[in-house]
Specification:
Shape: globular
Oligomer: single chain
Strand content: 25-35%
Largest sheet: 6 strands, antiparallel
Length: 476
Amino acid sequence: MDQPQLLPVIMSGGSGTRLWPASRSHCPKQFLPLVNGSSMIQDTVQRLEGVADLAPPLVICNESHRFLVAEQLREIDQPHSGIILEPVGRNTAPAVALAALHAIQQGQDPLLLVLAADHVILDQAAFQRAIATASEAAQSGALVTFGIVPTQPETGYGYIRAAATAATTGCLSVAAFVEKPNLTTAQAYVDSGEYFWNSGMFLFRASRYLAELKRFHPEIVAACDKALQSVHADLDFIRLDEAAFSACPEDSIDYAVMENTEQAVMVPLDAGWSDVGSWSALWEVSSKDAEGNALKGDVLISDVSNSYLSSSERLVAAVGVDDLVIVETADAVLVSSKQRVQEVKHIVAQLKAQQRSEATDQQRVYRPWGSYQSVDQGERFQVKHIRVNPGQQLSLQKHHHRAEHWIVVNGTAKVTCGERTFLISENQSTYIPIGEVHRLENPGKIALDLIEVQTGGYLGEDDIVRLQDDYGRIDD
């Protein structure tokens, strides 16, 4: 049987706090539809459509994001080669080592196309041509990185200096990797024509990457190999040995391998790339009106220019402003000069210091069976909108401190309440008493939407006693 030649490795471990309030640590930017109707991780996968000899992607993510990854791949009917769960973050060198070791354990030695889940690439055809060029070099043993042709001096990116001579057709030899420069140095880099933005995307054969990593940092390979020795499958997920992986040194591919190997080459890429690292960067890659405004959602403006305005829940109106970012969500509004959006990190730091939920949680919380959103709450009551995906069910559970009233607004619910199991449809309701064992299921082919009214003395999410769960959850 022919082995797949090109395995996309999607790195989905980022927290995306620079795009607060839309991006939160429990639902960061890669899972949001920031540029179009698809999320960024969905775009990352879909822009590979048509690449030759392509295997289903292997995703590496934070354990707390596992259900978001699985659900977003399911939404676009995208098969995958596995979802590796990192119990702790150890940067890109160990993460890609896991991917390479896992592939070799499966009896394969594919080319690994390492991609971030949260980048924008506007020219899909140019990107795929660059992949083809990089694949040829990687087949010959090279470790390929993609250098972005700079459009302006940029202090937020590291740079790659290309050697004067070509390494092979379409590839340049790498002379050096350099750190993020100041503005004067960045301008000199751009003017020279020798420097490219470091995209953090790579292509190399799994065994070649492991050989070079073992040469320079054998302790990383050893720790990752040990973490995979006791791996166990959990639904779509590949769980590592937490203690072994936690002992792994933290390092990036650049520092661990690419700056040390003699086999590094670079493919220049001019494809409308952005890492969307700030609201101003998102404004740059967004469609704009004649006055330079990028507008998303229910937005009305008068005499506004060069601004980014986004509404997710309510009407946003602006009059007589220029060069602003205004972002509205269900629980927060950000207003910033476009020139100072990087400083949103100071707001996030204050929220974390105050232990406020706005730093971590969206109003809509995602679960393996669907999602829920708090609509209203007060003393001794809470109202939620619950959505259960087709064919999914919540855990069999009970609550010590609250009763629940369920009202179906769309679809059909299969309800277990004590010894009874029954169906309720649109405009019908049921009541779950305190302490009663119950379960909610969607047996249909469309989403089930219902309004849940909770009443009782304590309404926290930790008042759930799970008796049986399809997803193997203990406390989430």
